[in-house]
Write a structure and sequence with these properties.
By secondary structure, the protein is mainly β. It has 1 helix and 12 strands. The N and C termini lie far apart (about 50 Å).
Length: about 140
Amino acid sequence: MSYLVYDAETGKILRTLTGAANLQEMAAQSQAPNEIILEGDFDDRLFHVVEHVAVPRPRVSIPDDKTITGDDVDSFLIGNVPAGTEVAIRNFGVERTDPAYLATFTVDDGAFEWSSTRAGLYSFLVAPPFPWQRETFEVVVQ
């Protein structure tokens, strides 16, 4: 049987416990006062706990089409982005020492729109605040 330990205030899954004979034994283990045990085995990258139930963490809206034209008019738009989300974009077409290799942005208005005039493959990391899921993907600029 597997159990998870989560933060009662945030719902963040802190760790998974397995192999204990019963719940009382696990409860006797050292825990912070705001930690609660719940039966189940859930990936903390994909789930959090709301009202003592493990539920999927929300996701930002990543478009299916990840190809844009490098004309600085066509753009890549990510919707449903919570304020405070960090977006990092890596350009694989330049050397690491080039200032265009890595760009970072903070979203504060609910959406992220990006365009480029440089053709190439770009790696995105979208890191919203908890409980939102992190997303990684690639965009091609033609």
